[in-house]
Amino acid sequence: MAELHAVLVCPYCHEKLLISPEYSRCNRCDRTYPVVDGIHDFLEASEKETARFYENWYREPYKAYNLDGLGRIIKKSPFIEKYDHLFRYILYTQYKRERFFQEVMKKLKESCPDPLILDMGCGGGNPDIIESGTICGIDYSTLAMRNTLAQQHYYMLMTCNATRLPFEPETFDCIVSSDFIGHIPPEGKERLFSEMNRVLKKGGLCAHVIETDSDNFVKEFAKGYPDLYLKYFIEGIGGHFGLEYPSDVLRRFINAGFAPVSIKKYSTYIWDIESFIALFDNEYKEKSFLLRSVLSCYKIACENFSVKVTATAILGLFAYLADIISPLSKAEGILGIWIKER
């Protein structure tokens, strides 16, 4: 789809770029952007330190903070993968993203048979969108994208600052992200939403899984120990430096010209077993007898795979009910679909 290259512009002056296999160049402001292994690099030298943070994190996700349990999820086991079509509906806490993006792509296909999609913070790629259109992926880390699903199936990949996108206005039919917006610091949020509006076509869809701050009792307990919260919930998970409450996130979309189509809570009081153990089986457990007791029960359940799956399914039922009755402020994240109105 050659027209995607045709809409590349300088992220600073928005002049059309001259494209070659090795670099792209802006004649107006005399900037040259390299292309390495097919990945366009639009990052400035001052942004390379942030890029190195994500490069180091992607080398061994979670391990530096003993959070590697977050990377060993039930759904990656061969048995669960074999019966994936069934467990997507049984394990409520495990497949929220997958169900969400399947719904989004179905809705998108109804109005746009061959959409152009921007995947922000794409990492290794989103398997639930790869057959739905022509995809451009952006990230801060080349390591996250190289030799992955994204490099195999996405039409174009690039490293760039999402608050300075190198595309012409109204390029994309859909913009998606998963655990990305919470990584953008508060000072960059307004520009991020402005850029999403600029490059999305009028009537186009925005679909995001957004990590958020929360005032539920689990999160309030975690925030009661600021050093531990920074270590495990901000830096350890990969740089959640821009968490905001759900209501603030929704307000940003509305102010940027997006109308909500569907807003769901990602989770409230009940988390999946593995994430809970990974985030609290550390210095936190010395702060609460109740927490130690819950962790002990969860770890016993994890010793046997069948028990673990059963416990996850039962907790999923309670999590589903909790998500329905809890106010939005209790959500740890939101799954939202918006349409560009202006």
Helical amount among residues, as a percent range? 40-55%
Shape: globular
- Give the CATH superfamily: Vaccinia Virus protein VP39
Order of helices and strands: HEEEEHHHHEEHHEEHEHHHEHHHE
Proper CATH architecture: 3-Layer(aba) Sandwich
Residue-averaged pLDDT, rounded? 90
- Overall tally of domains: 1
Class by SSE composition: alpha/beta
- By DSSP, the count of extended strands is 11
Using the CA coordinates, give the radius of gyration.
20 Å
Strand count, sense and barrel status of the largest sheet are:
11 strands, mixed
What is the helix tally? 14
As residue ranges, the low-confidence spans are none
Task: Assign the CATH topology.
Answer: Rossmann fold
Strand content: 15-25%
C-alpha end-to-end distance: 27 Å
> Which CATH C-level class is it?
Alpha Beta
Strand order of the largest sheet: 1-2-3-4-7-6-5-8-9-11-10
Question: Quick gist of this model?
Answer:
This protein has helices at about 5, 50-60, 80, 85-90, 95-110, 140-145, 150-155, 185-200, 215-225, 225-235, 245-255, 275-280, 290-300, 305-325, and strands spanning about 20, 25, 30-35, 40, 115-120, 135-140, 155-160, 170-180, 200-210, 260-265, 335-340. With about 350 residues, it is an alpha/beta fold.
